[in-house]
Amino acid sequence: MKKIFLLFAAVCVFIACDPVSEDISNGGHITLDELLAKTTVSVDKSSSGKNGNVITCSTSAPVNAAWNIGGKDFIGNYAWKKMKLGSHTVIMKALCADGTELTAEFPVECQEITNPLEKIYLFGSADNANPAVLGPGDAAAGRFSNGEGKFFPYLSDDVYFGKKTLIFDIIATEEGPFIWGSDVGCTCRVMNGWWSSTYADNVPLSVGLWEVPITDQIAAECAQGGDGKDLDILMTRGSITVKSVYYEE
Question: Which of 75, 110, 145 corresponds to the end of one domain?
Answer without folding.
Answer: 110
